[in-house]
Amino acid sequence: MTVTLTHYLFLAMTLFTIGVIGVLTRRNILIILMSVELMLNSANLTLVAFSHYLADATGMIFVLFTMTVAAAEVGVGLAIVVTIFRNRETIDVGKMELLKH
Predict the structure, then answer these.
(1) pLDDT of the chain along its 101 residues, tens only?
(2) Whole-number Å distance between alpha carbons of 19 and 86
(3) Fewest Cβ atoms closer than 10 Å to its Cβ: which of 7, 27, 55, 87?
(4) What is the CATH number assigned to the segment(s) 5-92?
(5) Which residues pair with 92 in a beta bridge?
(6) Overall pTM surpassing 0.85 (yes/no)
(7) What is the greatest pairwise CA distance in the chain?
(8) Are 5 and 50 in contact (CB under 8 A)?
(9) Residues near 88 by Cβ (< 8 Å), separated by ≥ 6?
(10) Residue-range domain boundaries for the chain
(11) DSSP state letters, the chain
(12) Residue 78: HSE in the Cβ half-sphere, 13 Å Cα cutoff
């Protein structure tokens, strides 16, 4: 059995769906950040799959940029989470009302 483009796209769709469900249902900010990373990785998988099957390196170049943005997002996101935890002593999204006042 050979792995086709459809297999990669189905895997990427599944990963993206799991990420969306994680963002919408979880209240822990760390789980939400991990779900966003899962969605970015599914987009990267799609870009690499199309790049491979179209024999073009453009998708792989976009993946490098996406990975750079994802790494910066993790650094900034975790710094914000640590700062909020120090001030509010919780990482529950429902209890964070910083922007309401």
Answers:
(1) 888 999 999 999 999 999 999 999 988 888 998 999 999 999 999 999 999 888 888 888 888 898 898 889 889 988 988 888 888 777 777 777 655 65
(2) 27
(3) 55
(4) 1.10.287.3510
(5) 28
(6) no
(7) 59
(8) yes
(9) 95, 96, 98
(10) 5-92
(11) ----HHHHHHHHHHHHHHHHHHHHH--BHHHHHHHHHHHHHHHHHHHHHHHHHHT-SHHHHHHHHHHHHHHHHHHHHHHHHHHHHHHHS--BGGG--TTT-
(12) 7
Amino acid in position 61: I
Supply 1's token pair. Answer: 């059995």
Instruction: Record the tokens describing residue 24, joined without a space.
Output: 């919408």
Amino acid identity at 52: H
